[in-house]
């Protein structure tokens, strides 16, 4: 069904975080009128001053050029032809999906919707949420799906800090309840994304795509994390082995071990599939095992530190441990689900004195500079491979009296650090 954009439409983005804010800016760049709904007033104020509240090169460059109106007034939704729901989908302390943000955003949209509007859920959800949660909410407000509202799902794809792939060019998949809704959603995304937009036969298939993508990553990372533990026992450098295996030009995809997995996707999305499948009577044993392995890595990292401190006859109790990096990945200020928090929790159990520094999250750091952290520390755990930490040489560590360094991302020069007389231990090397 061919549908063309015939007039300047208004796009309303609900949730101006890591997903919604780039989408709003990109939509404005592509000629749409844009309204952003955000409940965090401090974030609203910054956006309206053309300042990105998120450390991101795309936003830093483009928000001042393509500004839009941000507000906490949900009545502004009435002006929108297209509504994009971009709110978080977290899990609780028991790893159970928390759909309250999605439910709240859907109710907000349903209460203020223009007749004939297209609503697209971008938030990552398990298969069935659009049918079992989203659709009933809109129907409870008197809307008829496929007549006065069109509902689609286009699961977000974003990779913070990636210099190549961003909201402008990452291919997308989209599903909807009706052919017309699917066609409208496809036309919209083709107008803002310089990449393939792949329509799915069923909205449930679109939901499943994102969960599968991140579960695939989780499973492969769990495999190399388990290899790292095994190779520690076998005295094999897992990084060298992975690089060797990568010389095979087919049927191998390199993944690397680390002190834990962070971000809002990989540590979260598998649980959405695990729990939904459980309701249908299926047990995802493989996914559950992968999550258990990856969740164990912060504690394993602290175990490595304890073992290496034993070599210099130092207890973990009372030792000054510096943590380098709070963000979950390099060169971003995003600390959602970061392994930093699991490592801190384990260190507190052992009554270590904890110091931290992250150049991208200085407000959450206990030390103001890298030098200040090194001066306070007897041992160091590198959690995040920020470019600012490339200066960590054996000479610098030794000069500051660092006895042990645990390289949680296998980022540093192992041989050079060991040559300087500092005990080095990576994850599986």
What does this structure look like?
The chain has 429 residues and is α/β, with parallel strands linked by helices. The chain folds into 2 domains: 10-201, NAD(P)-binding Rossmann-like Domain (Rossmann fold, 3-Layer(aba) Sandwich), CATH 3.40.50; 203-429, Rossmann fold (3-Layer(aba) Sandwich), CATH 3.40.50. It is 39% helix and 13% strand. The protein has helices at 20-29, 41-48, 57-62, 100-111, 129-140, 179-192, 203-234, 238-245, 269-279, 285-295, 297-311, 339-349, 370-376, 394-399, 414-419; strands at residues 10-14, 33-37, 69-71, 82-85, 117-121, 149-153, 172-176, 197-199, 320-324, 353-357, 379-382, 404-407, 423-426. Strands 3-2-1-4-5-6-7-8 form an 8-stranded mixed beta sheet, with helices on both faces. The chain has a 5-stranded parallel beta sheet with strand order 10-9-11-12-13, sandwiched between helices. Helix 7 (203-234) crosses helix 9 and helix 7 (203-234) crosses helix 10. The radius of gyration is 24 Å and the shape is globular. 49% of the residues are buried.
